[in-house]
Amino acid sequence: MDLEAIPGVGAKTAERLAHLDDAERALREGDVAALARAPGVTEGQAARIARGAIRERHGDGSRFLRTDRARELYDDALSLLRERAVTDYAKRRLETFYPSASRSRIEEVRAFVARATERDPDPAVLDALAGVAPLTDPAGLRVRERCLATGDAEAYARAERQFPELSVELVEDAADLAELARGYSTVIALDEGFAGLDLPGDVRVLPDAGERIDEVLPERLLAFFAENRERLLAAADVHEAAGLDSPCGLDALRDGLSRIEADGTVRGDEELGRLQDAVSDVDAAVSTGESVANDRLREAIQTRDVTIEGADLLSLVEQGARVDALLDRELADEFDEAVAAAREHVVDALRLRDHADLAERAFPDDPTFPVRSDDEAVARLRTDLAAARDRRAAALKADLAADLAALRAPVEDLVRDALELDVELAVARFARDFDCTLPAFGGRGFEIEGGRSPLLDVPFEDVEAIDYGVDGVALLSGVNSGGKTSTIDLVGLTVVLAQMGLPVPAERVRLERFDALHYQAKSQGTLDAGAFESTLREFGGLVTDEGNRLVLVDELESITEPGASAKIIAGILESLDEQGATAVFVSHLAGEIREATGFDVQVDGIEAVGLVDGELEVNRSPVKGRLARSTPELIVEKLATAEEDAFYDRLLGKFAE
Ligand SMILES: Nc1ncnc2c1ncn2[C@@H]1O[C@H](COP(=O)(O)OP(=O)(O)OP(=O)(O)O)[C@@H](O)[C@H]1O
């Protein structure tokens, strides 16, 4: 796959993605987490890359959102979805949904939505999802008690690449290997030529070490499971709570995870614990052993009268013998007992079994007083115990790694499925929360029945449903605050969601598959000459664009003086009408614009049905073909009816002219 063919992927990003095991799958499935595992690729970039890959797959190169306000509506739609996702992954993954003009892309998402909306957003599942996150590869693992050894430069380079966690040593002969075995608990020789040698220590010959990674370096697998333990347990809970088919046995996974400590060592082995304690207690046990022996001897000496004949004493002194020799001669039994007691103490205190011999050697047979341990023998005991501890730990790790190895690939799916479920549940919750339906594509323009915008400043349950449809070009008139802007917002949001392939907040919607959405928001006041000119240029570009567009424009008249605006808007409407575009222009000057337009432009109106306590009561659904009366007209009418005053009648008459 040519990664650089994906929009937004340059040579550098392509190179980064090439580090992934399966970049193609990740791109195909929009797996943002897998893409973000590429070195130097952030989650935000990963979402953009995934979106680019989708576009490429559907040959969808066009931009659908053509204005800032159109993009804002998309952002709003995304926020509504993202708020309903639990995991950061799902929030990112939702960004791969975008409004598209491509039929196949829209169909693809609609198929996803059909699955998603069947999901039940059970609170137990949402709770469990809180602990799920993409799996990570532990960094900085270093194993110091084991090394690889080879005499071959190529094998050396390969081993360095395959096992960055281990030291790789170059050796020439068996003597070199033996030397290494003194410093490492285990030496793994990579050359067949070393087979059959009888070397001290733990030296193994494994020419195919590169294919037996879990055996040679179980720490890598264990560190992976230790580091991801909480996420895996949470993903297992999600599968159970949601009743999803699991790609691996959840009990076996939980059991395996319960056997690893957070640091990747194996939990709960009595023998390993014994050896660990023994290594750390050697010095203390030996020194207590010395005290035990010396206390005994001291006592024996104190309670003993030593008789020695003068000739013997003389001969001892002449030989230069120390008092120890005297002890040897006189207290041989006591001395033996004292040393035996010291040895017994060490063997007991360290709970030694196979190392009892070595422990005995820690106290020399030759009598001395005070009794002193043999430093060399103690060092040997310490080294041997440490090697036994490391061998035991390595064997346990290898056993557990062998059990967990079968789960390594399935847990990737386990977590991915849980995270994808979160994406589906976010869509399902969005659809439920806003009473959504899947829209139907076809015909011209759009037709919304019972549409309720989730973007209003009132609680969703208080939003009044709107029916509105336009086929061609229309002016939308209406009283102040009647809901004109809200109506075109609803139209824009509905079209954006529909073309993302998502359900829309309405009872029923039919729409044409548009190529682009232009939404011109209300300007904040009269524009200066320069800004006015550039706005006109934008419309100039808009009316010469190709394709079937939906154009939504809010009170364009506010950009300049009313008389001129009406003429300009009329001209724009004519051009759009000639092109067969669908357009809704919200305006307070609908009457004037209609006058100035060279075709019979449709005018719809959001009408006030009356004034209640000084407040307008509004029918939020635009009435087709009706120019809505303005708020001032309604107030004048009210005054004219209430007060018998010719002045108000005159004003009202002006509206009728
Ligand atoms: N369908 C609806 N259901 C409930 N409330 C609505 C609805 N539509 C609009 N409103 C309320 O009316 C307010 C005004 O709506 P909006 O700004 O769309 O009116 P407008 O006709 O564009 O006003 P203006 O003429 O001042 O531009 C909204 O802020 C909202 O509180």
Automatic annotation (TrEMBL):
Cofactor: a divalent metal cation
SUPFAM superfamilies for the chain: P-loop containing nucleoside triphosphate hydrolases, RuvA domain 2-like
Name of a matching Pfam family: HHH_5
Function, as annotated: Has ATPase and non-specific DNA-binding activities.
Organism annotation: Halomarina halobia
Domain of life: Archaea
Annotated transmembrane regions: none
InterPro entries attached to this UniProt entry: DNA-bd_MutS2_arc, DNA_mismatch_repair_MutS_C, MutS, P-loop_NTPase, RuvA_2-like
GO MF: ATP binding; DNA binding; hydrolase activity
PANTHER family per the UniProt record, alphabetical: DNA MISMATCH REPAIR PROTEIN MUTS FAMILY MEMBER, DNA-BINDING PROTEIN MUTS2
Keywords assigned: ATP-binding, DNA-binding, Hydrolase, Nucleotide-binding
Binding site for ATP: 478-485
Domain DNA mismatch repair proteins mutS family, residue spans: 471-656
Keyword Hydrolase: yes
Membership in a protein family: Belongs to the DNA mismatch repair MutS family. Archaeal Muts2 subfamily.
Name by which UniProt lists this protein: DNA-binding protein MutS2
